[in-house]
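## retry 2 of 3
previous attempt timed out at serialization; input unchanged, resubmitting
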Amino acid sequence: MKGLARAVDNARILREFKNDDRTAARVLDVGLRRFPGADAVDLVKALTTRAEIAIALGEIEIARKIRDAVDAVTLGPGDAESLADELDSVRRLEAWLTDTDR
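## retry succeeded, writing output
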């Protein structure tokens, strides 16, 4: 595992085993800056993981930016199928953001 995929895995470990969302967010933020040319699948996984953390931390503006970034990713023919869970989390993010606007 390399690049952005490794950052996603490290963030998962920080969240699940260390209960450290802030450090997990920093790991993903650094990974996203460091690997801007990552493939679409890794990019969507990193962005959706970061979005979940943004929600947990109450970072509404960051969550909005992430939603827009996910929308801008061009997926390949089979990518949407392999990213079904991640794309579903984006739909939940959209609902959460809509609720926060009320």
